[in-house]
Inverse folding.
């Protein structure tokens, strides 16, 4: 276990480099994820935000660099040890990545069926519990993914990611493609689940509203590495990088920022 | 998973989960210890099911879930506790929790609240009922397909008629592209399979006819069969698999990405640009390929005749002249354009029926191939009846 500043580091990434063909996306990327935090990874298109998530979760191999998961080096893990670690996280892919031939309830039960030996009635009850916890209506239980809206698919995907009560959840653009009301509901859901289940949340996002409402810490991916980490308001008040300045101090960011909203409300009064 | 000391957990081995039930004064207590997590849930579930629900002798008995000894808990553990508490409450014991940390309490309350939701029943119908329903659906589906295909034939004919009146509507680049893909590129495979089948039929024919001393007639059999049936059928089935599916996939993926809607809004008729060039290209290509198939079938027969009968090339040709009439050739050839129209129409229509998802594309490609091959064989049978009826 790695401990820094009194907090447990659940994921530590050091000196990561990765190229696709001749295009190098990172060179010497470092990142720490602490237990119990909600971390947002932001960065321009093509900076490899989603790829970083895939590298951490082992779907993509880096060229060089070390990824430590719960204090263990991911590259030297035996397959069984790796599986044990994989059971400790859940991943929500962009469009939910639900299995199209299974109903929502069956989708949520897939990880339980694969990794645990639970009686069917208990799996039904637990899956149903997860389904209601992510805010899906009970009628959605026996529907197929194709019968659900985009927002419901994401919720169902989140329920499946939570099936084994993981310690970390990875969210890939959780609010992309949702309408503003749906996105804001999803933000609150993430916050609520994080508090209820004591989750560590690793989130790839573009959404400034999400960053300002739920994220405690933001890591900015630019110039082939993580150029800065800090709370959203910190980054906004002291941007020391042109991209951060443009992102956190642009018009959209000012509208989303709580300090700015306070200022506007104050002026109205 | 929630741990008792939330900030920093020392890497001690989590104690094995367990519980005991005891009666202290007028309180039934379930004292739970260790890690109540999903990984342990199966064992806990079994053990909890063995515990009888305590029956309070008088109403002033209460229940208590003492979870002060629980080191780790997650939704599965909370659900097990809550299920037990509910069972006790139903038995008349008012049950409360003791020793929960703030985070444990939030989780247990959430699980309790979510557990109240009404669960929908799955609609289950009798298997026989379902079978009859499916059969009915299949029948109406087949009927609907026939109507749709006829409608589509009408639309394509109308579009063709429009094109004849306004020849600038014709899309030569598209037409030649499909002629290349569906025709020229199919040459090697069709030549090969027709050659092989011709050879195989000749060999089998000789083997079967030899006991009657009639093996020279194998040449007649191969010649008639190749020209009337094998050439066209093999070619049409091959083209249905190659090009019919390709038409569905191309048009279907355009439909999926809303390209066809975009075309319509730009004033481009998909009938002119997508359907007609494909239909026309196949109507030209399939007879040519059938001709090739006929020749290769005969060639395969000839090679095998040399091998097993010892007929040399010129004798084989002479025998062909004796047995084969031009009408045999025509009887096979006449079917080719009709088969082409069927394959192209089915392929394009299935492509246009594709909806937004990738699964839909997959099912329509499959059904295009199946329907096209089925209809080609039906067409062949209809022609066989018709041609024998008029004595050809």
């Amino acid at each position: 276990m790695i401990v820094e500043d009194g907090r447990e580091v659940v994921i530590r990434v050091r000196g990561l480099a990765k190229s696709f063909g001749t295009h190098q996306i990172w060179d010497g990327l470092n990142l720490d994820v602490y237990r119990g935090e909600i971390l947002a990874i932001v960065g321009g298109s093509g900076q490899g935000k989603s790829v970083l998530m895939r590298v951490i979760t082992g779907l993509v191999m880096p060229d060089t660099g070390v990824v430590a998961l719960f204090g263990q080096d991911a590259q030297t893990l035996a397959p069984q040890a790796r599986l044990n670690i994989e059971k400790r996280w859940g991943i929500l892919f962009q469009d939910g990545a639900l299995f199209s031939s299974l109903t929502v309830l069956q989708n949520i039960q897939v990880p339980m069926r694969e990794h645990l030996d639970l009686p069917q009635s208990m799996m039904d009850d637990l899956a149903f519990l997860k389904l209601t916890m992510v805010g899906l209506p009970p009628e959605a239980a026996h529907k197929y993914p194709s019968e659900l809206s985009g927002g419901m698919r994401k919720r169902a995907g989140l329920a499946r990611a939570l099936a084994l009560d993981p310690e970390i959840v990875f969210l890939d653009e959780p609010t992309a493609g949702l309408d503003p009301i749906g996105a804001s509901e999803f933000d609150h859901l993430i916050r609520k689940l994080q508090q209820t289940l004591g989750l560590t949340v690793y989130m790839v996002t573009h959404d400034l509203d999400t960053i300002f409402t739920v994220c405690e810490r933001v890591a900015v991916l630019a110039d082939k590495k993580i150029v800065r980490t800090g709370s959203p308001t910190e980054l906004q008040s002291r941007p020391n990088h042109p991209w951060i300045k443009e992102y956190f101090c642009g018009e959209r960011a000012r509208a989303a920022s709580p300090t700015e909203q306070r200022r506007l409300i104050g002026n109205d009064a | 998973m929630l741990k008792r000391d939330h900030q920093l957990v020392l890497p001690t081995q989590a104690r094995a989960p367990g519980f005991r039930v005891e009666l202290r004064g007028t309180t039934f207590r379930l004292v739970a210890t260790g890690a109540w997590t999903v990984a342990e849930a199966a064992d806990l579930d079994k053990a909890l099911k063995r515990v009888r629900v305590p029956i309070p002798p008088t109403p002033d008995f209460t229940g208590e879930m003492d979870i002060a000894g629980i080191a780790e808990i997650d939704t599965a553990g909370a659900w097990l506790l809550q299920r037990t508490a509910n069972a006790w409450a139903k038995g008349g014991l008012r049950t409360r929790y003791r020793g929960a940390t703030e985070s444990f309490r939030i989780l247990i309350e959430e699980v309790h609240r979510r557990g109240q939701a009404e669960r929908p029943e799955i609609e289950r119908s009798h298997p026989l009922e379902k079978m009859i329903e499916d059969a009915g659906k299949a029948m109406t589906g087949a009927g609907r397909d026939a109507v749709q295909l006829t409608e589509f034939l009408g639309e394509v004919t109308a579009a063709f008629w429009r094109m004849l009146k306004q020849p600038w509507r014709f899309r030569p680049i598209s037409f030649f592209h499909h002629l290349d893909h569906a025709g020229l590129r199919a040459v090697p495979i069709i030549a090969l399979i027709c050659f092989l089948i011709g050879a195989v039929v000749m060999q089998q024919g000789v083997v079967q006819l030899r006991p009657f001393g009639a093996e020279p007639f194998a040449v007649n059999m191969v010649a008639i069969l190749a020209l009337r049936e094998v050439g066209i059928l093999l070619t049409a089935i091959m083209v249905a698999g190659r090009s019919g599916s390709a038409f569905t996939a191309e048009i279907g993926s355009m439909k999926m990405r809303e390209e066809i809607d975009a075309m319509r809004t730009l004033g481009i008729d998909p009938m002119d640009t997508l359907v007609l060039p494909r239909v026309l290209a196949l109507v030209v290509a399939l007879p040519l390929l059938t001709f090739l198939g006929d020749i290769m079938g005969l060639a395969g027969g000839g090679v095998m005749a040399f091998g097993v009968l010892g007929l040399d090339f010129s004798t084989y040709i002479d025998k062909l002249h004796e047995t084969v009439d031009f009408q045999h050739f025509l009887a096979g050839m006449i079917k080719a354009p009709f088969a082409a129209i069927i394959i192209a129409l089915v392929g394009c229509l299935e492509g246009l029926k594709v909806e937004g998802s990738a699964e839909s594309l997959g099912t329509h490609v499959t059904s295009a191939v199946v329907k096209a091959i089925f209809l080609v064989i039906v067409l062949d049978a209809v022609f066989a009846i018709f041609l024998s009826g008029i004595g050809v």
Summary: Chain A touches chain B at residues 1, 3, 6-8, 36, 100, 112, 116-119, 122, 125-126, 128-130, 132-133, 138-139, 141-142, 146, 162, 164-167, 195-198 (CB under 8 Å). Chain A has one domain: 36-61+76-252. DSSP finds eleven helices and eleven strands in chain A.
